[in-house]
Structure formats: C-alpha cells, structure tokens
Amino acid sequence: MTNPLQRRPKQDGRHTPNLWPVWLVAPGALLLVGAAAFGLYHGAELLLSSESTGKKPVGVQDVIKTTVTVLTLIGAVLAALYAYRKQLLDEGTSHRADSTQLTERYTKAAEQLGHDQAAVRLAGVYAMARLADDWPEQRQVCVDVLCAYLRMPYETDTTAPAFRHGEREVRLTIIRTIRNHLQDPTADTTWCGLNLDFTGATFDGGDFTGSFFSGGEVDFGGSTFSGGDTYFRHVIFSGGQIYFNGTTFSGGRIYFNGATFSGSQIYFNDATFSGGRVYFFRSTLSGGQVNFSESIFSDGEVDFGRVKFAGGQVYFNRSKFSGGKVFFTSSEYDSGVVSFVRSTFSGGEVLFSGSTFSGAKIDFSSAIFSGSAVSFTGSKYVGSEVFFTGSAFSGGEVSFRLSTYDGGEVSFIHSAFSGGEVSFSGSTYSGGIVRFQASRVHAAATVHWEPFPAIPVNQE
Questions:
Q1: Distance CA 214, CA 365 (A)
Q2: Which among 11, 46, 273, 440 counts the fewest CB atoms within 10 Å?
Q3: What are the backbone dihedrals phi and psi of residue 296, each rounded to the nearest 5 degrees, phi first?
Q4: Cβ(296)–Cβ(273) below 8 Å
Q5: DSSP string of 360-421?
Q6: 1-10, 183-192, 289-298, 325-334: lowest mean pLDDT where?
C-alpha cells in the first residue's frame, strides 16, 4: 500500500521538483497563516502600547492596520516565491520538451546517415551538423558520429562490388562541414577544441584549408591518403595533439603549404610516403614538436621548400630515405632543433640546397649516407650548429658545393668517408668552426676538400 505522506522518488532525467500533496499543504498553510495573524495582532498591540506610554491609548484600528500591513508584506513575499516556483516548473517543462525534441532530431539524423540513398545521407550530414550547433551539451557526440562515418570502410574503386555511387560527395561534405566549424575559435558554434577521430580513415580528397587546430586531440593515425587533393593549407596547429602516425601517403596530393605549427605536438612518426605528393611549402614551425621519426620515404615527393624553422623541435630520427624526392630547399633554420639522428639515406634525392643555417641546431649524427643524392649546394652557415658527428658516407653523392661558411659550427668529428662522393668544391670559408677531427677516410671514397685542408687516406 502506498504511503500518502511519502514523497515521490526522484526520477532520473526529470526536472520537476518533488511536491507535497495539495490536500496536505493547504490546511497546513491556513493554520500557519492564522497563527501568524494572531501573533502579529497581539505583537503589534503590545508594540504600539509600549510606544504610547503616557499618551492616548492605541486604538484597535491602528493595531489592525499594522497587522494587515505586515500580512500584506508576507503575502507579497509568498506570492513572489510562488511565481518563482512556477517559473522553475515551466522551465523544467520547457527543458524536457527541448531535450525530447533534440533527442528525436539526433535519432532521425543518425537514421539518415545510414540510408542507402546518397541524397538522404547528405541530408543526414547537414542535420547532424545543425544539431551539434543547437545542442552544446552533446556537441562532441554529434561530431563523433560524423567522424565515425569517415572511419567506415570506403571503396574508391568504381569497378568494385562494394563501390557506392555518391559516397565520395557525402564524405567530402562531412570534411567541408568540419572545416567550416574550425575557422573561428571564438564562434558560439565552433568545433575548435573538440576531439576529432579519423583513425584508419581513407581520404581521396578533402579540404581543411584555414582550420584552427587549437585544442583537443585530432587523430589521423593509420589513415590512408590514396588519391585526389587533400588541403591543409594555412592551417594553424597551436595546441592539443595532432596524430598522423602510421599514416600512408600513397597517391594524390596533400597540401600543408602555408601551415603554422606553433604549439601543438604533431606526430607523423612511422608514416609511409610511397607515392603522390605532400607539400609543406612555406610553412612555419615556431614552437611545439613535429615528429617524423622512423618514417619511410620511398617514392613520390615531399616538399619542405622555403619552410621557416623558428623554434620548437622537428624530428626525422631513424627515418629511411630510399626513393622519391624530399625537398628542404631554400629553407631557413633560425632557432629550435631539427634532427635526422641515425637516419638512412640509401636512395632517391634529399635536397637542402640554398638553405640558411643561422641559429638552429641541425643534427645528422650517426646518419648513414649510402646511396642517396643529398645536396646542401649553395647553403649558408652563419650561426647554427650543424652536426654530422659519427656519420657514415659510404655511397651515393653528398654535395656541399658553393656553400658559405661564415659563422656557427659544422662538425664531421668521427665521421667515416668510405665510399661514394662528398664535395665541398667552390665553397667559401670566412668564419665559424668546421671540424673533421678523428674522421676516417677510405681510399674508395672521393672527397673534394677545398676550401678545407685535405685529410689524407687513413683507412685502407
């Protein structure tokens, strides 16, 4: 049997406060008001009598008037409390109605995204994005759904049985929608700072131009860029963590040109560049960390031309350059660290021609030059520390021709020249330090030493 005096249990998800039964509250309220009126009447009579000692006695009308005034004040306060309570109830009702409507919109948008027809799926994309704008509390969930769509299996071969007509347009629309919400971090509907999970996704195009990746975690790990043009032009990476580790760049063109890396941690480690073209042309690295360690460059082109290294750390440690072309031409190394420690240059071309080393630390320690064409031709050394300490030159061609040494330090200490060709011909030395102490030179190596004193063969 239900206890009529027991308060109703709290219901999860409801915003209506628990209320006592009216039949119980009303008599109690009447008794309280009556008692208050009685007390006020006698209290007012005693107060007025005490203040009129020796004067004309206080009339009953004055006592009643004072009592009524106080009761009116109390009534006004109670009315205000009642109005406030009613407003809370109305807001709760409205909030429940809004939540129900938003939930229904979410369900419908999710159903549209799973529809067989591309046009319906497109409508689902726009519906989910609009819902994310209208529902800040669940914005991350809505964005997660759109990212999850991109992670689903995607067949790009038009002749394959699993190919779906119109699917590429749906995916490109999702990417554009995400980009549009990453343009202004101060906007009320911004998605900057949210987590974006693209792990394992396949991209055959897309445009993230001008996006702000200023917080949260953005993960392209294990993704494949296999065709089309994908744009990250003028993107700003200024916070959070960005993952491209294990990504495969096997076709198409990917543009990071003009991007700014100023505070994020960005991981390209274990990435494979086996085809297509990836451009970092005219990008600026002024802080944070960009990591290409243990990446493989086996085909295609990767262009870091005219990049400005003005701070932070960039790592290519233990990477393998076995084919294709990697350009660092005409870049500026003003500050920070750029490291190729223990990397292997066994094929293809890696070009640092025309670069200026004015303040950064560039480290090729223990690197192996065994077959690539590596060129520092026309570079200027005016203030940086450039280390080839313990490196091995055993094949291929490494050119330092026509370079200018006017400051800083370039070290070949403990390096081994056992094969291939290394040339400093046509270079100018006017300052700074260039060290070759404890270097080993094999008879099979061809080294053009000028303008530096030749080191005789000391290893047969």
A1: 34
A2: 11
A3: -120, 125
A4: yes
A5: -EEE-TT-EESS-EEE-TT-EEEEEEEE-TT-EEEEEEEE-TT-EEEEEEEE-TT-EEEEEE
A6: 1-10
User: 208-229 burial, b for 16+ CB within 10 Å, e for fewer?
Assistant: bbbbbbbbbebbbbbbbbbbbe
8 A C-beta contact, residue 169 and residue 118: yes
C-alpha to C-alpha distance for 361 and 253, rounded to whole angstroms: 30
286 three-class SS: strand
- The pLDDT, as a whole number, for residue 322 is 97
- Is residue 289 within 8 Å of residue 265, measured between CB atoms? yes
User: Which of 130, 163, 165 is closest to 145 using CA atoms?
Assistant: 130
Length reported for the chain: 460
Cα 65 from Cα 40, distance rounded (Å): 11
Asked if the peptide bond before residue 451 counts as cis, ω within 30 degrees of 0, the response is yes
- What are the tokens at 355? 């670069």
What is the phi-psi region of residue 175: left when phi exceeds 0, alpha when psi lies from -120 to 50, beta otherwise?
alpha
Q: What is the DSSP letter of 459?
A: B
Structure tokens at 58: 């206080």
Residue ranges of alpha helices (H) inside 152-225 are 167-180
What letters, b where the CB count within 10 A reaches 16 and e where it falls short, cover 444-460? ebebbeeebeeeeeeee
Phi, then psi, of 68 in degrees rounded to 5:
-60, -40
C-alpha 117/C-alpha 114 separation (Å) is 9
Two tokens at 154? 């995607």
pLDDT tens sequence across 247-267? 999 999 999 999 999 989 999
Rg (CA), the chain: 37
Encoded tokens for 37? 């009126």
DSSP string, 241-264: EEE-TT-EEEEEEEE-TT-EESS-
Confidence of residue 414 (pLDDT cuts 50, 70, 90): very high
Residue 303 near residue 328 (C-beta atoms within 8 A): no
Cα atoms in the 13 Å half-sphere on the side-chain side of 399: 19
Percent share of the chain, pLDDT over 70: 79
Q: How far is Cα 415 from Cα 317, in angstroms, rounded to an integer? A: 18
- pLDDT tens sequence across 343-387: 999 999 999 999 999 999 999 999 999 999 999 999 999 999 999
